[in-house]
Specification:
This protein is mainly α and about 150 residues long. It is built from four helices and no strands. The radius of gyration is 24 Å and the shape is flat.
Length: about 150
């Protein structure tokens, strides 16, 4: 089989799946907005602060995932850096809602610390790779300048 045909078919299926995922995320986002608006508009009932804050944090998570699906279509990829950002912000938001168990707080703090270490290591590795690429390009240009009569 032709590899171009397989690649195009795979990309088409992936695009359709990302569109479906984006529609699902946006519908959950709209549902959470509707639930928050109904809690706001119904003023006579007693509202649990932690339940409302949990609903707000869920809304933000759906919003972030909808942005990820948009990024896929704009940049034709989703960067690992954005997944790390979302993981860190999700854990921080979770700390705002669940704060009554000390062991859970310690586990979440350790998870946030681990994500930060991964984020720093990822950025350092990316910077190192770009620096090496730059050095290789520069060295290649210097070699060509020093040996102008050579055919490559």
């Amino acid at each position: 089989m032709n590899r171009k045909y397989i690649d195009k078919t795979y990309a088409f299926i992936l695009d359709i799946a990302m569109i479906a995922l984006g529609i699902i995320m946006m519908s959950f986002f709209a549902k959470e907005i509707w639930n928050l608006a109904s809690v706001l508009l119904v003023g006579g009932t007693s509202v649990d602060f932690y339940k409302v804050s949990e609903m707000i944090l869920e809304t933000f998570m759906f919003f972030e995932f909808a942005i990820l699906t948009r990024e896929y279509f704009v940049q034709d990829r989703i960067s690992l850096q954005n997944f790390i950002y979302i993981g860190i912000t999700a854990m921080l938001r979770n700390l705002l809602v669940i704060h009554n168990d000390t062991l859970d707080i310690m586990i979440q703090a350790a998870a946030i610390s681990l994500l930060m270490v991964v984020f720093i290591a990822y950025n350092l590795a990316k910077r190192h790779i770009l620096t090496e690429k730059h050095h290789d390009e520069r060295d290649g240009k210097l070699f060509v300048e020093e040996h102008p009569n050579q055919d490559f």
